[in-house]
UniProtKB/TrEMBL annotation:
Pfam families from the UniProt entry: NAD_binding_9 (PF13454)
InterPro entries, per the entry: FAD/NAD-bd_sf, HpyO/CreE_NAD-binding, L-asp_N-monooxygenase_NS-form
Protein name from the UniProt record: FAD-dependent urate hydroxylase HpyO/Asp monooxygenase CreE-like FAD/NAD(P)-binding domain-containing protein
Gene3D superfamilies reported for this sequence: FAD/NAD(P)-binding domain (3.50.50.60)
Origin superkingdom: Bacteria
SUPFAM superfamilies attached to this UniProt entry: FAD/NAD(P)-binding domain
Annotated organism of origin: Mucilaginibacter agri
C-alpha cells in the first residue's frame, strides 16, 4: 500500500500521527508540501501570520500531540523567549502567538517523522513540491499526482490535506483592493485614510491588528488599560468594519471542558437508527436536543429550565435580541468583563460552551439533514454560532476597545444585500442600505475582504482532472417535502432544483463526501482511493469546520478506511 498526502500542514500531521498509532510498517507514505516546512500550514506561518497574530485556542485546548506546548516551551527557551514567553510566564490557559505555535507544530511533525523511522515505516517528504492535479485511474485502481514541474507520482490512495485556499479576484489588478488579509505583510504600510473591511470577526481582527500596529502604537494608561496613539504621519487613519448584522464576535471565556466534549459526536449507530425513523433524514431538532439541551440540563439546570420549551428558532432569537439591542462596542466591553470574570473564577459561560460543542458535533451528521433543516441551520443557528464560537482572544479585544475609544474603529451594518464595486483606478464603492433604509454608496481607497475562509464551490477545486473526469460531484441535500422545495423555486431561490427523477435538492458548497471523507461521484459511487480533508471544499457537508479539533477528529475517520 502506497499513500500520498497532498499538503504538509496540521491536517497532514494528524493523518500521519494516526497512521503511526496503528503500529504497522507494511505501507509507505509520501507527503507533498509546496513550501519548505512541515506542520505550520497556512495560519501559523508567514503566509497567515506576523508576530502580532495569536491563536484563538490556548495551550490546554490543543489536541494531544507528542509534547504539550508547556513542555515544548521548556525545551525551546530561545524560540519562546523571542515571543516574550518563558517557562515562568507561560500560562496554559492563554492563547499563543501563531508563529510560535507554528514552530511548535513543526517540531511535533518532526517527532512524528522520527517515530515513523524508528518503527520502520517509510515516509518520504517532497518539499517545495506543489501538486497541481489529481487523476483517478479507476481501471488500474491507482491515483496519480502531478506536480507543477510535471513529475507524476502514482499511489493506491491519496488524502488531500491542502488546507486553506484564498482565490484572488481583484488583488494585484485593482490598486488598494485586497481579496484577503493574507499574507499579512502586505498590510504593513502606512495608511492615511479610512480603510474598509468586509467582516467583523477573527479575519477582520487579523487585518486590524496589522494595520493598527503599522499606523500607531498601543500602550497602557495609568489604570493599566490599553490605549492607542496614531502616528503623526497618518492623522486620517481609521478602520471601518462592515458586517451583515452589525455584530462583533463574542469574547473568549474559560472553558469547563478544554476539549469541548469532542466525544459528544453522535454515534453512527444512533444516527442510523434516528434516520430510519425519519425517512432517511436526521432532524436538526434531534441534534439540538442531544448535543445542546441535554448538556445544559446536566450542567446548568437553571438555564435549561429557562429555555427548555423554546424552539431552536426562539432560543436563537432570545440570544440575538440581547446582542442586537445593545450597541456592538458596548456589548463587546460587557462581554470582555464577563469573560474576565469567567477566566478569574474558572467558570464557563456554559450555554456558549455548549453551542461550540453543538457546532462541532453537527459537522459529521449534517449531510443527513433535510434541505429544510439545512436552510434553518444556515439562516438561524449558524449566524449565532459564528459569533459565539469565534472566541475572540482578550488581547485582540483590548486592542479593538482601545481603537474604538480613540475614535479610530467603527462598525457599520450593511445587511444581506450589500455590494462591493471595484474601481479600475483603485479602491471600491461599498453599496448598502443602512439601518434607516437609506441607500448608501461610500468610496474607500483601501478595501480588505475579511469574510474568512470562504466555502468554495466544487468547480473551484484546484485539481482540474477531478472535475473534468467527474471524479467529484457538487454537494447537494435532498428536500423531505417537495411542496416546500417548490415554494423556494417559485421564490427564485437558484440553489433549489428538481432532478430528473423529480426529487428536489438544495445545492450546498463543495463536493460530496461520505462519513469517511471519501469523495463521491455523480452516480453516488464512493471513491475508495481519494479522501478530501481540505475544509474549503467540503463546506456544504461540513458546515462548521473548527480548526485543529476538526483535523484531529477527521483524521481518525479517514484512517479507518485508508488502510
Ligand atoms: C488565519 C487563521 C487562523 C486560524 N487560527 C486557528 C486557531 O487559533 N486555532 C485553531 O484550532 N484553528 C485555527 N485556524 C483553522 C485552521 O484551519 C487549522 O488550525 C489548520 O491550519 C488546518 O490545517 P490544514 O493542514 O488543513 O490546512 P493549512 O494550514 O492551510 O495547511 C495546508 C498545507 O498544505 C500545503 N499545500 C496546499 N496546497 C498544496 C498543494 N497543491 N501541493 C502541495 N502542498 C500544498 C500548504 O503549503 C500548507 O502547508 C485558523 C485558520 C486561519 C485561516
Amino acid at each position: 500500500m502506497h499513500i500520498g498526502i497532498i499538503g504538509g500542514g496540521p491536517s497532514a500531521m494528524f493523518v500521519l500521527k494516526r497512521l503511526i498509532e496503528l503500529g504497522r510498517s507494511d505501507f509507505r507514505v509520501d507527503i507533498f508540501e509546496k513550501k519548505n516546512k512541515l506542520g505550520a500550514g497556512m495560519p501559523y506561518s508567514d503566509e497567515g501570520a506576523r508576530a502580532e497574530h495569536i491563536t484563538n485556542v490556548s495551550g490546554n485546548e490543543i489536541p494531544d500531540l507528542f509534547t504539550t506546548v508547556e513542555d515544548w516551551v521548556g525545551m525551546n527557551h530561545s524560540v519562546a523567549n523571542s515571543y516574550d514567553i518563558t517557562v515562568k510566564n507561560f500560562n496554559e490557559y492563554k492563547v499563543l502567538p501563531r508563529l510560535l505555535f507554528g514552530e511548535y507544530l513543526s517540531q511535533q511533525f518532526s517527532f512524528i517523522l522520527a517515530k515513523a523511522e524508528r518503527m520502520g515505516l517509510k515516509v518520504i517528504v517532497h518539499y517545495q513540491t506543489h501538486i497541481k492535479d489529481i487523476r483517478d485511474l479507476a481501471a488500474i485502481n491507482k491515483v496519480e499526482l502531478i506536480s507543477r514541474d510535471n513529475r507524476v507520482f502514482s499511489f493506491n490512495k491519496v488524502v488531500v490535506c491542502s488546507g486553506h485556499y484564498w482565490s484572488k479576484h481583484y488583488e494585484d489588478i485593482v490598486p488598494g483592493y485586497f481579496d484577503s488579509p493574507y499574507p499579512p505583510h502586505k498590510l504593513t504600510h502606512l495608511v492615511n485614510q479610512s480603510v474598509a473591511i468586509r467582516g467583523a470577526s477573527l479575519t477582520a481582527i487579523d487585518a486590524l491588528r496589522t494595520l493598527s500596529l503599522n499606523n500607531g502604537s498601543f500602550s497602557l494608561d495609568e489604570h493599566g488599560k490599553k490605549i492607542y496613539r496614531l502616528n503623526k504621519d497618518c492623522p486620517k487613519f481609521k478602520i471601518i468594519l462592515h458586517s451583515r448584522n452589525g455584530l462583533l464576535p463574542a469574547v473568549r471565556f474559560h472553558l469547563e471542558d478544554s476539549h469541548l466534549a469532542k466525544d459528544s459526536v453522535l454515534d453512527p449507530k444512533e444516527v442510523e437508527h434516528v434516520r430510519a425513523q425519519h425517512h432517511g433524514f436526521l432532524p436538526l431538532d434531534y441534534v439540538y436536543q442531544r448535543n445542546f439541551l441535554e448538556g445544559l440540563k446536566h450542567n446548568r439546570p437553571d438555564f435549561y429550565e429557562l429555555i427548555k420549551d423554546l424552539s431552536l428558532e426562539d432560543f436563537v432569537e432570545l440570544m440575538m435580541i440581547r446582542r442586537e439591542d445593545t450597541p456592538a462596542f458596548e456589548l463587546l466591553k460587557a462581554e470582555y468583563a464577563e469573560a474576565e470574570r469567567s477566566i478569574a473564577l474558572k467558570r464557563s459561560v456554559y450555554w456558549k460552551e455548549m453551542l461550540a460543542i453543538l457546532s462541532f458535533a453537527m459537522n459529521y451528521p449534517a449531510k443527513y439533514f433535510s434541505a429544510e433543516d439545512m436552510l434553518r441551520l444556515q439562516k438561524t443557528l449558524m449566524p449565532l454560532i459564528a459569533i459565539v464560537i469565534a472566541f475572540a482572544p482578550q488581547d485582540s479585544v483590548e486592542e479593538m476597545i482601545a481603537l474604538y475609544d480613540a475614535g479610530l474603529l467603527d462598525l457599520i451594518t450593511v445587511g444581506d444585500k450589500s455590494q462591493i464595486e471595484s474601481v479600475k483606478d483603485g479602491g471600491i464603492y461599498y453599496h448598502y442600505i443602512d439601518e434607516t433604509g437609506q441607500k448608501v454608496s461610500s468610496y474607500y481607497e483601501t478595501f480588505i475582504d475579511c469574510i474568512g475562509q470562504p466555502h468554495l464551490n466544487y468547480d473551484e477545486i484546484p485539481f482540474p482532472s477531478l472535475i473534468a473526469d467527474q471524479t467529484v460531484s457538487a454537494a447537494k441535500i435532498k428536500f423531505s417535502d417537495p411542496q416546500i422545495a417548490k415554494t423556494y423555486v417559485n421564490g427564485g431561490n437558484k440553489n433549489v432544483y428538481c432532478d430528473t427523477t423529480g426529487d428536489y435538492y438544495l445545492k450546498v458548497p463543495g463536493i460530496t463526501i461520505d462519513d469517511y471523507f471519501r469523495v463521491i461521484n455523480n452516480s453516488g459511487e464512493i471513491n475508495e482511493k481519494i479522501f478530501m480533508m481540505a475544509v474549503p471544499f467540503i463546506g456544504g457537508f461540513n458546515p462548521d469546520y473548527s480548526g485543529l479539533d476538526f483535523g484531529e477528529a477527521a483524521s481518525a475517520r479517514i484512517v479507518e478506511k485508508l488502510i
